[in-house]
Specification:
By secondary structure, the chain is α+β, with helices and mostly antiparallel strands. It has 15 helices and nine strands. The termini are far apart.
Length: about 400
C-alpha cells in the first residue's frame, strides 16, 4: 500500500511531510520539493502562494487525523492570489513603452553614475560622504521601474570596464528595486534597500584599486584585506551620514551567505536580514553579468542558472526563485537561438510565460547574415514561425554588438 496521500491545503497540518505541491516551480516561491511542515504559519505561506493540493508521505510524517479527532470543519479559505511582478504593475496602471522609458533611463543612469563617482572620490580623499544626495536618484529609479520594469534594469547591465564600481552600484540598486516590488515590499522599505545598495561598496575607496581589480587569484592575506571593505564602508558612512537600519543591513550583509560561509560575520539563514539576502543575490548577479579584469561577463541566462544552482547554499532559495521571476528566465537584452536557426534579442518579458518572451529576430545563424528585424511574441500559438528558444547565446560569439541590439 502506498504511503503517499493527496490532500487539500485545508487538510494540511504541522508535522506532515510534503512530497509534491502539484504546481510548477515557476508558479510559486516554494523552493524545496520535499519538506516537513513546521507550523501553522508554514501552512499559511503555502496557502498564500496559491497551493491548493499537496501530496504527503504518511511514513515520514503525520497522517490526516481520524474523524473522531477532527475539530468542527472551518469554512474553506480562498487561497490568496499569487503575487507576481506583472500583478504589481497592472495594479499601478498602464506602463510606458520600453523605448520611451529606455531614453529616460539612460539619462537617469548617467546622472546616478556621476553622483556615485563624486561620492567615491570624496571617500578616497577622506571628505564628507552625504548619502542623502542619493535619495532623489533612488526615487527616480523607483519611478522608472514602475513605468516599465524592462528598461532600467537591462540598460544598467551594460557597463564600461573603467567605471565598473560606480555603475555596479547603480545597477544593483535597480535590481533590488525590481526584486522588492516582486516581493510586495512597501515603497519606503524598497527605497531604504536601494539606498543601501548604492553605497554598499563605498569601503572600496579605502583599498588599493590594483587589489580590487587584480586579474589573478587573491592570496589569503589579500582576500582578508578585500573583505575589510564592508566594515570600512560602514565606518565612512557612520562618520558622515545617517543611514536607516535597512540600508545599514545591506552594507553589512551583502557578502553574507545563506550557508554561513560568507563574511564578515558568517551569519546564516534567517540570521541575515531580508535586505541582506536580497542584496547578496543582486550583487552577485550583476557582477556575474559584467566584464571583469579576471573574467568575461556571463550571459544573463547562464548567470541565473548558476544562481539557481546555488539556491539553498549561498543564497535564500525562495528569493532566488523570486529573482528569476523578476528578471525573467531570459532577461531583457539576452541573445537567444530559436528553433528556426535565427538569433533574436529578448525585447520584453512575458511575466505569465517566462520561457516565451517577446523577442526581436535579427540574424540567421545558419546563413551568418542579418535579416529584417521582426518582433515576435513566442507565447502566441498563431503567428510564430520561429519556434521556441533553444538556448541563450552571447553577442561576442556571433560578432554582434550588445549595445546596438538592446531594446529601443
Amino acid at each position: 500500500m502506498s504511503s503517499i496521500r493527496k490532500i487539500t491545503i485545508d487538510q494540511l497540518q504541522p508535522g506532515m511531510y510534503v512530497v509534491d505541491l502539484h504546481r510548477r516551480w515557476l508558479d510559486h516561491n516554494i523552493w524545496r520539493r520535499r519538506f516537513m511542515v513546521r507550523d501553522a504559519a508554514h501552512v499559511d505561506t503555502l496557502r498564500r502562494e496559491g497551493i491548493q493540493e499537496i501530496s504527503i508521505d504518511i511514513e515520514k510524517g503525520d497522517d490526516i487525523p481520524s474523524p473522531r479527532l477532527l475539530h468542527p470543519p472551518m469554512p474553506p479559505r480562498a487561497p490568496s492570489p499569487v503575487r507576481s511582478l506583472a500583478d504589481h504593475f497592472r495594479a499601478i496602471g498602464p506602463k510606458v513603452t520600453v523605448g520611451e522609458e529606455r531614453r529616460r533611463a539612460a539619462r537617469l543612469l548617467s546622472d546616478a553614475t556621476i553622483v556615485v563617482t563624486d561620492m567615491m572620490y570624496c571617500a578616497q580623499a577622506g571628505g564628507e560622504v552625504d548619502a542623502a544626495l542619493l535619495e532623489p536618484l533612488v526615487q527616480r529609479m523607483m519611478s522608472s521601474v514602475q513605468r516599465n520594469p524592462d528598461a532600467l534594469v537591462p540598460l544598467a547591465r551594460l557597463k564600461q570596464m573603467d567605471s565598473y564600481a560606480n555603475e555596479h552600484a547603480v545597477a544593483t540598486a535597480a535590481l533590488i528595486i525590481a526584486l522588492g516590488h516582486q516581493q510586495g515590499l512597501p515603497e519606503p522599505e524598497i527605497e531604504k534597500l536601494a539606498l543601501g545598495t548604492m553605497v554598499k561598496d563605498i569601503g572600496h575607496a579605502a583599498l588599493d584599486a590594483k587589489l580590487v581589480d587584480k586579474p589573478g587569484a587573491l592570496s589569503l592575506q589579500e582576500f582578508s584585506v578585500v573583505q575589510s571593505h564592508v566594515e570600512e564602508g560602514l565606518a565612512v558612512l557612520e562618520a558622515t551620514s545617517r543611514l536607516p537600519d535597512a540600508a545599514v543591513s545591506v552594507v553589512l550583509e551583502h557578502h553574507e551567505r545563506y550557508n554561513g560561509l560568507g563574511y564578515p560575520y558568517r551569519m546564516a539563514g534567517d540570521e541575515i536580514t531580508l535586505g541582506g539576502r536580497m542584496a547578496a543575490i543582486v550583487d552577485t548577479y550583476d557582477a556575474m553579468t559584467s566584464d571583469r579584469p579576471y573574467r568575461p561577463a556571463l550571459s544573463p541566462a547562464l548567470a541565473l542558472r548558476q544562481l539557481y544552482a546555488q539556491g539553498g547554499s549561498d543564497f535564500d532559495p525562495m528569493l532566488v526563485a523570486s529573482f528569476v521571476k523578476t528578471v525573467g528566465v531570459y532577461p531583457v537584452g539576452t541573445l537567444v537561438l530559436l528553433e528556426s536557426g535565427h538569433l533574436a534579442v529578448v525585447d520584453e518579458i512575458n511575466h505569465e510565460h517566462l520561457l516565451s518572451p517577446i523577442v526581436r529576430v535579427i540574424y540567421h545563424a545558419g546563413r551568418s547574415q542579418y535579416v529584417t528585424p521582426q518582433v515576435v511574441d513566442l507565447s502566441r500559438k498563431v503567428g510564430n514561425h520561429y519556434g521556441q528558444i533553444v538556448r541563450a547565446e552571447t553577442f561576442e560569439r556571433w560578432g554582434l554588438s550588445a549595445v546596438r541590439w538592446q531594446p529601443v
